[in-house]
Write a structure and sequence with these properties.
This is Stress-response A/B barrel domain-containing protein. By secondary structure, the protein is of the alpha+beta class. It has three helices and four strands; from the N terminus they run βαββααβ. The protein has one domain: Alpha-Beta Plaits (2-Layer Sandwich), CATH 3.30.70.100.
Amino acid sequence: MICQVSLFTLKPEITAERLEEMMWTSRTSLLRIREVLHLNVGKRIKDSDPWDWFLSIEAESLDKLAILQDDAQYFKFVREVLDPSVDKRQVLTFEMDPRKDVKYS
């Protein structure tokens, strides 16, 4: 099982209302993708934290993650939600199955 965590810093003009809309849109659009097994979306609690927002997507394997990232819904999400609103991002990918060799993920 693969978990990809994306951390985002938003552009200065993004309001709290826009962030709420982005979170809602993330859930409604990404959960339509068949390969998405689980999705978490959240905003920061403390102003001192460096990242404003995060998105966590779980998929069965790296191949399934690649398939979901090639999905039209995902491209639309990136174009309409991420690209206009995100200033900086960091993407981390993890294997979640214990004792599984990551080269077989």
